[in-house]
Amino acid sequence: MATKVVIYGLSTEGYSLACKIALNGGDVQIIDESTPSAISIKQDIAKSYTSVQALKDDEPLLAMTSIDAAISKAQVLIFAPKIRKTGQDIKIEINSKFKDAVSCVKKGCIIVNALGTGFGGNSENMSLLEHVTGLKVGKNISYFYYPISKEVTKKSYIGSSDGKENEILKNLLSNDKQFNFLTLNSSEYFHAIDVLKRFSNQTSILEICKFAKDSVTKLDLSSEKLGEIFLDDLIEGLFDLRSLSSSFEGASSLMYLINGSMKGMDGYIKRLIDETRLILKKNELKASRTKILLLWTLDQHEMKGEKIEKLHELETKLKDYIGDVESISQPIDIFQNDKTTIVVVCSKHDLNYIMKNNKDNDLILLKANPLCQLISQK
Questions:
Q1: Closest by alpha carbon to 112, among 185, 186, 12, 6?
Q2: Helix 306-318 to helix 238-245 angle, to the nearest 10 degrees?
Q3: Best exposed site among 143, 147, 255, 360 by fewest CB in 10 Å?
């Protein structure tokens, strides 16, 4: 009989994992927190609908059960919720959803935390798990850490509360990839290294590219693929970086790395705004006669809301200087009026789209990449 798997959270990452398990012959249900109900994901659904949005748009008839009934029968429960709070409220939201997820689990269940955490985050989860269920981790319930991203297959390690392999998870998750089962501490450290390597690299690029002022230098740097890194790429994983930041207090070399990366991201948002204002100055445009469009097609079902948050932040800060600011996504229909329109393109996907579909030569296009390149100018 197939292992009964429940994934808590109809997120992009959670749904991708559910489809993978279903296609491997698994018995999997995914919990839609907004309904609330548990949806059965069969092989035909996994094959027909490649994304959460496609599933929601078509509204196929799906077998549903109550959340409590699904979780109480789960042999494996994977925690992959959509997190949308910011600041200090993030931890409250995570703890609240984790309590909801584990409140009905039974003895022998395997709990998998798929949400990236800082140092010690899994110890806190295990304490909460034991408090809510009355069960003991390692004795009559198991706990694992598998921080996933949209590229689910990237991670090759799983943190285990006892550091031992689990055959059920190996069969469910490994497919053709070999997993290493590590202690929870080791898996947290490896995840931290992955996150810091990514952001340290990106921050270095952002800081160096500030010095590229002339078009020839920008073209040279762009030819080395630096022009293909967009705001959408830069923000990826910011949630995990912040989780790391909250793990430490005081000054240390590690905190300098973390804080430097976070300041680098904040500094880039400021730079984008400055570059947009510079376009007005160079073209002698009045703010009252200019419209800003932020073209950023976001996945509204991502597990972490870091990109949605940054889009709102960018829109709000731009409105301090230019009243007419609007965020848009594909497909777009840019209604031209008597205002000059500046389109800030925030992802490579959006750039390819507007370059292919835009027929209006009067648009000013600003690439939200480390070089802040102008593609088209009125």
A1: 6
A2: 90
A3: 360
Q: Which fold has domain 4-189?
A: Rossmann fold (3.40.50)
Q: Name the least confident of 11-15, 150-154, 203-207, 335-339.
A: 150-154
Q: How confident is the model at residue 376 (pLDDT cuts 50, 70, 90)?
A: low
Q: Does the pLDDT of residue 378 top 60, yes or no?
A: no
43 φ, ψ (degrees, to nearest 5): -60, -40
- Per-position DSSP letters for 302-368, written without gaps between them: -SB-HHHHHHHHHHHHHTTT-S-EEEE-SS------SSEEEEEE-SHHHHHHHHHH---TT-EEEE-
Domain ranges of the chain: 4-189, 213-376
Distance, in Å, from the CA atom of 230 to the CA atom of 368, rounded to the nearest integer, reads 6
Pairing of strands 290-295, 27-32: unpaired
Q: Burial-class residue 58 by CB neighbours within 10 Å (0-12, 13-18, 19+).
A: exposed
Rounded Cα distance between 130 and 119, Å, is: 19
Closest-CA residue to 243 (of 79, 120, 150):
120
